[in-house]
Each structure stands twice: as structure tokens, then as C-alpha cells.
Design a protein that fits this description.
single chain, mainly alpha, 2 domains, 0% strand, elongated
Length: 141
């Protein structure tokens, strides 16, 4: 069944095989009975949560699970809107990429929008900012 979480025993075993024995995702998947993609997703979650093996002292299964699966941010949360005039002005400068501007935005607003939304929104916004020369606009590399 899709989207069923692995047991904490299997997650812990995956972490142990990865960190202590340097096994590949495929080898770990075979050992715990899941797919290599699933192993990769759990290892990515562990890396993002700062969890390694051996597990930190005093960290029980509930604490590990809450770190691996933080609560989902509600869609009705209001996020800080980027200053599109500033973004537009900066994009006109040489060697400025949209990714760089997004990183600066995220540094100031950690709970801000993700890169894909930022790019998608940027492609729509400029027409409102500058109706004269939209043909020269490029999205950063």
C-alpha cells in the first residue's frame, strides 16, 4: 500500500546499515524489505532532521518519528511575499540568477515560499512591473 510508513525498527535498521556499514540504498532495501527509493527518502529525511546512527542518547521512537515527519504546514498560512520590484531590478544585473535571489529571500524569510513557487510566480509578476521590455527577460541559470 502506498504512503504507509515503515516501522521504527526498519527505519533504525536502515540508518544502522547506512551509517555503520556504508551499504547502498539497494542493499538496505533488500535487507529491510522495501524499495531503494523509499530507503533514499528516509535517509534524506534523517539527514534533514540531523539524525545519524548511532542514535542520540535519550531519543525514543516517538521523538525520532516526530523529527522525521514534522507536522505539515497548513495551506492557509500567510507567507511573506517577495519584493518583486527588487527581484525584477536585480535580475537585470549581470550574473544574477533567480536561484541566488530566492536564496537571499529564504535567508530573510525561512518560512517563505519554495523555489518552484518563487520561479513560477516570478514568471507571472514581471508583466505587471514593466510593460515595455518583457522580451529581454530571462530566468536565472
Amino acid at each position: 500500500m502506498a504512503n504507509n510508513r515503515l516501522s521504527m525498527r526498519k527505519i533504525t535498521e536502515a540508518l544502522r546499515l547506512h551509517f555503520e556499514h556504508n551499504r547502498t540504498n539497494r542493499e538496505i532495501a533488500q535487507a529491510i524489505g522495501t524499495s531503494p527509493t523509499t530507503v533514499g527518502q528516509y535517509l534524506r529525511r534523517a539527514r534533514e532532521a540531523g539524525i545519524a546512527y548511532p542514535l542520540p542518547e535519550g531519543l525514543d521512537d516517538t521523538a525520532i518519528e516526530s523529527r522525521l515527519f514534522p507536522p505539515v504546514v497548513s495551506a492557509d498560512v500567510v507567507r511573506f511575499e517577495p519584493d518583486w520590484t527588487w527581484v525584477h531590478r536585480e535580475m537585470r544585473r549581470k550574473s544574477v540568477a533567480l536561484d541566488l535571489l530566492w536564496q537571499e529571500y529564504k535567508a530573510e524569510h525561512p518560512d517563505g515560499y519554495r523555489y518552484s513557487w518563487f520561479c513560477e510566480r516570478y514568471l507571472r509578476i514581471p508583466r505587471k512591473l514593466d510593460t515595455h521590455s518583457t522580451a529581454n527577460w530571462t530566468v536565472g541559470a
